[in-house]
Amino acid sequence: MNVVLIPFFLAASVIVNDTSKWTFGPKYSYDLNMTYIMKTDPQEPVETMTLISELKCRPKAADNLFCHLQNSTIVNIGKNRNTTREVETEQMFEIKFNERGVEGLIIEPPSRMEVVNILRKIANQFNVGVDWRKIERISQAGEWQFMARENSSMGNCATVYKITREELKTNTVEEEHIDFRLIVLPMIDDAISNLSIEKSRIACINPPRYVDFSSGILKMGRFVSKIQINNRFEVSTEFDGKVRPPLSIDSMNRMLSFKEIMQLNLKSIEPAQDELPSIFYGELIDLNINTDIPSNFIN
Ligand SMILES: *[C@@H]1O[C@H](CO)[C@@H](O)[C@H](O)[C@H]1NC(C)=O
Ligand SMILES: *[C@@H]1O[C@H](CO)[C@@H](O)[C@H](O)[C@H]1NC(C)=O
Ligand SMILES: *[C@@H]1O[C@H](CO)[C@@H](O)[C@H](O)[C@H]1NC(C)=O
Ligand SMILES: *[C@@H]1O[C@H](CO)[C@@H](O)[C@H](O)[C@H]1NC(C)=O
Ligand SMILES: *[C@@H]1O[C@H](CO)[C@@H](O)[C@H](O)[C@H]1NC(C)=O
Ligand SMILES: *[C@@H]1O[C@H](CO)[C@@H](O)[C@H](O)[C@H]1NC(C)=O
């Protein structure tokens, strides 16, 4: 059975023994790790925060995924004490796609702004954001580089794309007991391959002004992502900057180095257990963290 993992871009062929279990369609589970690190220059860590969560998504329409976060935990490692707490992130949302990638998010009111921004960053992980005429060249093995502008969660950026496609080294489908096979839709042939899309962004217009969960003022630096597709689907993003923290974090008001690392890995494709829920009062918002959302949508 073929299912759409990322509209217009990635499908999966799933081994199904009993089709009656799949009446509600597939459910995709991803492991999510977002880590924020603040350091003084040169190297003394001031604070590290990690959000660990499970992202669950289901295809809703040809251009739409229905998702929510489950079992979210925040681990804070501070200078004086460490804390772990569970956080409420059960909010449902939809990611809307077009041929270029992610068009926006549909969220339900009322939403907490910090959760909305995390959802924007998560949706950005699914954003391929490449002109398909260029990506069609991935049907041959090789490496291509080109530059284009991309609308991302961190603004509209000049982005250098590096796309590589090579043969899969081994038949890991059997070795790893994975019960699905990924299919990159723009590829004409059907060969299993090892594809990576790296994006390095500079000169972003309208970047975020603040750091999540903090009122520190941000000066954006490097923003790179890597989408890796072989038998697995993994996306990682690294974002660097300088931040002037609030006085409560650093009493000397020094500029700190800031790094945000995000990792999203596909863990499983399983049959969904129930009817797809609906978002009744949803509103389409764009990915950019700096774009305001209707005030009746914020809590
Ligand atoms: C499908 O059936 C095969 C052979 O009986 C079995 O090895 C495999 O684990 C089954 N897969 C699933 C997903 O149930
Ligand atoms: C989350 O990511 C950070 C940074 O890459 C890493 O140090 C940490 O071990 C990861 N945590 C988990 C639970 O995967
Ligand atoms: C994750 O959340 C689900 C439903 O909210 C709950 O049933 C399950 O026990 C949780 N799992 C863990 C590991 O906390
Ligand atoms: C906090 O956790 C880190 C990493 O797990 C550990 O090295 C450190 O000693 C802990 N600090 C305190 C105050 O418990
Ligand atoms: C980025 O967004 C702007 C405004 O929403 C739109 O006009 C433009 O076409 C988008 N660019 C890309 C590359 O998607
Ligand atoms: C895919 O390519 C990456 C780097 O190009 C390599 O590190 C990895 O081992 C390859 N994976 C497989 C399964 O061939």
TrEMBL record:
The keyword Transport does not apply. It holds the Pfam family Vitellogenin_N. Residues 1-16 form the signal peptide. Coiled coil: none annotated. The keyword Magnesium does not apply. Keywords: Signal. Gene3D superfamilies: Lipovitellin, beta-sheet shell regions, chain A (2.30.230.10). GO terms for molecular function: lipid transporter activity. This is Vitellogenin domain-containing protein. Residues 53-167 form the Vitellogenin domain.
